[in-house]
Amino acid sequence: MHSGVKGTLIVALAAVCLALGSPAFGWEKDKTYKITILHTNDHHGHFWRNDQGEYGLAAQKTLVDRIRKEVSLQGGSVLLLSGGDINTGVPESDLQDAEPDFRGMNLIGYDAMAVGNHEFDNPLTVLRQQEKLAKFPFLSANIYQKSSGERLFKPWTLFTPQGLKVAVIGLTTDDTARIGNPEYLQDIEFRSPAGEAKLVIQELQQNEKPDAIIAVTHMGHYDNGNHGSNAPGDVELARAMEPGALALIVGGHSQDPVCMAAENKKQRDYIPGTACKPDRQNGTWIVQAHEWGKYVGRADFEFRNGEMTLVNYQLLPVNLKRTIDWGDGKRERVLYAPQIPENQRMISLLAPFQRKGQAQLKVKIGSVNARLEGDRDKVRFEQTNLARLILNGLMARSGADFAVMSGGGIRDSITAGDITYADVLRVQPFGNTLAYVDMKGSDVVRYLTAVAQKTPNSGAYPQFANVGMQIEGSGIKALTIKGQPVDANKTYRMATLSFNAAGGDGYPKLDDHSGYVNSGFIDAEVLKQYIEQNSPIDADALAPKGEVSWR
User: Which residues form the signal peptide (predicted)?
Assistant: First the structure.
């Protein structure tokens, strides 16, 4: 274990109890209690190991079981928390509404989960079914139903390890209203997480008097609170509370290993299995375990006389591998840490779901001669060939002159070789529909000027096809459609996704425009058909050539 991570968190409750004149605590004086918090986040449908044998719930169960046994032998207790976003990302899961994921989490024994923004990629009826399936609470204090003014989920839950009272509060990014599918959010309000946290903490201290309070959040970790065009995240949350009011924030959403290289600065290329120092802000530790079940985070606390002390923290890789190049064209994938065997009971549970999903997805639909780029660190920063392919498909189906979409809607790359429907669904897992709108050139100029303000390093960063322009400050220059200057009086057809047309990612709303049509065609199905009709795909022909530039 890496024992260099130490720090004391003074639980504000002690002062509160003294102020109220209450000498009684739920804990014994001078007794040391051991509490281990395990955590994952941004699972995104990865219930099964990948093609290289990495992660998956079967290996995760083995790891969690080992830790529970170890901690129990030391007289301690374990809580297992998820930072949310169980949904969306792997076709075998998506086609089955993440049923295998929640059943697997039940078998592992999760204790609570924050509601993530991608839990709203499906209608609320699907989310309620998932909630019924799960044997652990879905937590979010800041999500309300507009029509009733009531919270949609439990704001907190209480655990009593060894007789201590540990409250866990759930919080969800208020960006969900902007980046979620507006079609499913019409009667839902996302209030300020920090504001709701303060209210819940006050309520807990008055009514439950917990010995420690933990927040499980889906808000993101941004160095020094510099969240850019994203909503405020965990750093800002910690700073908004009374010092030490939260012992720990278990986070998600930004999909980072939160391992600090220096104060307010994360390690950018964290190496699995190496030491990891979590962030600490205003007396609160902040942790996050990257994504997809690649790691299980482990925070070992000791509670003594009203104080929570973090004595050890680790990010434990779940069968992650690296590639070694031996030269002469020989490459090998090797484990960063000893192999974790898969739990056979979990395999028996999940294998039928995996088979059922794969049967629908393995059929070849086309091929490509080189990589189509869809990685997160590309599609949110620059124009890519995969974005161009997707947009070409939208234009072909709708007869549009040009197309626009937010880069955050592209979730994976496609490698050279055969393409299957599974590949397409990994790229576009959200089930949005093709929409198009006919509008005057003057409206096109206004629309593209607004969209061009969406900055890199956010899901809103726009991808274009058949558009040329130079973006300077709050304006655009040299705007062309299909290589020709825009005519203010000419009518143009623009293709996009229903998500963006409804105002998703903060794009101008188009679904109330007189020329708007929602085709009803699912985006992944549109791309699948386009690939089938245009294979083999030439990746180089799709490569952007500087038509769009930011200055």
Answer: 1-26
